[in-house]
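[Q] Does anyone have a clean structure-token version of this?
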Amino acid sequence: MPRRQAENIEKKNQKERRVMSQKERVDLIEVDLLDMCKYILSKWVFILIGMVVFSGAGFGYAKVKSVTEYSSKMQVYVTVPKTSDKVLIRDNAGDLAYDYQKLIKTDLIVNEIAKKTKIAKDDVKDAISAEVVDGTRLLEIKVKSDDKDDVKKISKEVLPVFQKVVQKDLGRNKLVIADQPSKIKAEQTVSTKKFLAVGAVGGFVVVAGVFFVLYLVDLTKKAKRN
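[A] Here you go.
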């Protein structure tokens, strides 16, 4: 009986030693992580320089790749003729709006605008687009190009040409102009702010990563010496 008790006590002691050993390893890891963070943060000057350099690189890339685009918007409201009970009109204003969305890029419209503005047909076709505002009969027409003068000329002719084609060529009801062409706005195709932020984050990650590797190398050398 005493022998069995002694064996049980020894097993218990071994278990406690294993638990203590695991705790010591955890404490050691925590100390190493703390030292590593202190080491990396002590290199804040180099990290800051890296962030500035990478931000500058991102800004330069954005400037080189970015193109200034100009745009103008306008809206028309699609209607159908008023009728009496004796006249059947099969047109639906909502469906017509989607028809007109496709019509805006057809030769009926594009050729006439190209003729009036003296701009190449393909350039006109690329510049204009239309989209139906969800849940409405409003059709938003947009003119967009990297040539400000082209946007100005096309915007001036879109609505008159569109109105003529709808009324005279197609024999449909007159479009109601909800919004005249807006002032021409300029925007960059590549955001410099976005690339500045990405560059700063990238610089931090790269420089901090380099010092992390150096810390591990130094830690390995010390472990071998010990």
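[Q] Thanks! Anything notable?
[A] The CA atoms of residues 45 and 85 lie 82 Å apart.
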